[in-house]
Design goal:
By secondary structure, this protein is mainly alpha-helical. 44% of the residues lie in helices and 10% in strands.
Length: 119
Amino acid sequence: MAGQGAPRLPSRRRPVQGRRSGGIRFLILREMERLEREFVSTGGLTPGERDRIDERERLGFSGSDLWLWNSAVYTDDPVMIAVGVHRSCRFVRAARRVVLKLRLRLAQPAKRFLGIGVP
């Protein structure tokens, strides 16, 4: 990526109209995008991550397909996927900020999962 500007970040996603879970997902992704921009602007990407992003840009990928994180909501069950420990921590931080800001009530701790290949 020598001589080029910072890689593009995903475009802002629009929430699914009429769905609370889609709106919450949108806010979490927007906060994650902000945290990721801050990380990238300080030169936080490894050479391998930069190479991966460059290759995917060259192949025409954009948005969440380009980056190393994404999220989905199945009915009312959110799934957040991130590559790497530090990025996963940023994703959890983004979700926590949104949950606290909206004063949402989460499921009991026994229903929460974090880790590799959790069900």
